[in-house]
Amino acid sequence: MITGSALLALLVQLIVAGLIFWLVMWFIGYVGIPEPFSKVILVIVGMVVLIFLINVLLTIAGTPLIRW
Length: 68
Description:
Oligomer: single chain
Number of helices: 2
Helix content: over 70%
Largest sheet: none
Distance between the termini: 20 Å
């Protein structure tokens, strides 16, 4: 069973990670990296976000994929 403080900690972790990933995507658009490289970077960032979200959901379930 997960407590309220653990859920709050996960929520804060999601917000901070979301801000970091948003800043990375904004910076890629701001710098103006050429097209094939920017798409590759966006796909890699998207995969990292997906793995992070899966890890958060598995942490709520009790068995995290990656232990930090």
